[in-house]
């Protein structure tokens, strides 16, 4: 297992390199001269030219790329044109906020989505099952920006229970902090929650008809344990796959949710950077998100082994499957 | 009657779908004494497994439903018990092993975990004690190095070893009755013999009664005291193994016996088979369910259901013509297709 993890970490390097190349090319394709955008419509041609030289934008593309790569090797993601700050520092300021929001959303999604899917599977074709599936269908197809705005309208504007925007600080007390977190995390949790409910249901239904479930029942095991122990553990593999994708997406920054609630996270950093043609920031954040994707995928692969003893990473032939 | 461990009376099991109702079991009667081995034989779809599953009350409901009958176990009707009371019997007093050991063990838990779970389900003992019992149980069923094997997963076991592990799970609480649903069908022949031998030994040491569901008459001859022949969800004949093999009364039983491979069969010779297929259980069966395939059927067979009567002591059959002449005629190869 240890060998496998080290090998996978080395595999990270080519992936990151390819992502770096793609991101570099795409950001150069965004129309508009960043220097002109940054200086505003009233800037003189001389000022724009001066800034262009200063930023190295007059250099040939391959030169810009080499400088960028050399920087990356030294852990330097570049310096933001608009914030006048190292990109790494910007990311480290915003990333914890995104992590907090993502974790809150994930906890809500898992705590509601998985039990809902389990109940649905255990009571297949009952009214309860249809109800859960209808709600989850609504959940996956809900436009997030609309849901977020509706929640703000109802709970902030009408009822005044929760603040409409912003992130609380712990200095104002834990309650205020949590109050700020509730609406954005519910908004962000909706799609993953519905996805978990659906994948849990279908995956459990596949397992429930297996012979070893009959064995468990024949041993006298109570139905609750049959479902939550014997069925669930066998159904976890597809759930883990979806979990990995959802975590990566949540950590990549929830662009819509963060924009609606003015949440100072990665999502807003990217949107602002695109707006300002701050391609250094765009490059850095996208690369950072790509690394997170790869790491989360690695984590999921390791977890497969934990839930399914037949998974064998040591030999190339694979295990029992 | 009081010494009967189990008696099933007029059991009906049906499966409903939106368009039809299938009567998978239709009036099954059987009795089983302590320490006895009863074979249930019949072709696929004859209701053997459904009867056993109904006995454990593991029929998936919906769509399945036990619509009539009594299942008396130690004098108590299992069908009147609550779910909780039934759970304390399942795995404890009545245990079951299944056909395919490759799929009947949970792949994500160790073999030990699954035996310990069965033990702790019914005995109030610590995990440590249960583990020791599980190791002893693995040793009993003939698994070498049980201390090591107990922490292995099912996929690390061979087919024969898995069936041994299943038997260990089933016998871990010393059940009074073991239901074996085609326990050797999925195993190769040498392993089959070992497993049967093991079951016989354990039956003798533990005084367990066994219901052996099979379509292999060789297994029945080897293992059983009595046989029940099932056809289209009903019992058509029952009696001791000797009676049924030497003096079968129902034409279906003749067909079953004739279609077995014996040493008389010449190389490349076609084995006798019963022509036709069982009736559609979605439609009510008016007369004898075997009528369409029976070479001896007469008018009455189409209109009247034969009664299941005791022809001689301990030998029951459901046929309108349980007489000597028809039995002699079967020698003329009526079942050759």
Automatic annotation (TrEMBL), chain A:
InterPro entries the record matches: BPD_transp_1_N, MetI-like, MetI-like_sf
Domain ABC transmembrane type-1: from-to ranges: 95-304
* Any one GO BP annotation for this protein: transmembrane transport
Kindly give the membrane topology term recorded for this protein. Answer: Multi-pass membrane protein
**What domain of life?**
Bacteria
| UniProt KW keywords | Cell membrane, Membrane, Transmembrane, Transmembrane helix, Transport
Q: Which GO terms describe its cellular component?
A: plasma membrane
User: Where the protein is mainly located, per its record?
Assistant: membrane
Q: Which residues cross the membrane?
A: 12-30, 99-119, 131-157, 177-197, 239-261, 281-300
Location in the cell: Cell membrane
Report the sequence similarity comment from the record.
Answer: Belongs to the binding-protein-dependent transport system permease family.
Q: Can you say what this protein is called?
A: Peptide/nickel transport system permease protein
Q: Which organism is it from?
A: Sporosarcina newyorkensis
From TrEMBL, chain B:
Q: Which GO terms describe its biological process?
A: peptide transport
Query: Source organism's superkingdom?
Result: Bacteria
Compartments (UniProt record): Cell membrane
Keyword Disulfide bond found: no
* Alphabetical keyword list: ATP-binding, Cell membrane, Membrane, Nucleotide-binding, Transport
Q: How does it sit in the membrane?
A: Peripheral membrane protein
What CDD domains has UniProt attached to this entry? Answer: ABC_NikE_OppD_transporters
PROSITE patterns for this protein: ABC_TRANSPORTER_1, ABC_TRANSPORTER_2
Taken from the UniProt entry, a GO cellular component term is: plasma membrane
The ABC transporter domain extends over 8-257
State one molecular function term (GO).
ATP binding
UniProt cross-references to PANTHER family, sorted A to Z: DIPEPTIDE TRANSPORT ATP-BINDING PROTEIN DPPD, OLIGOPEPTIDE TRANSPORT ATP-BINDING PROTEIN APPD
What family does the Swiss-Prot or TrEMBL record give for this protein?
Belongs to the ABC transporter superfamily.
Its name, as the record gives it, is Oligopeptide transport system ATP-binding protein
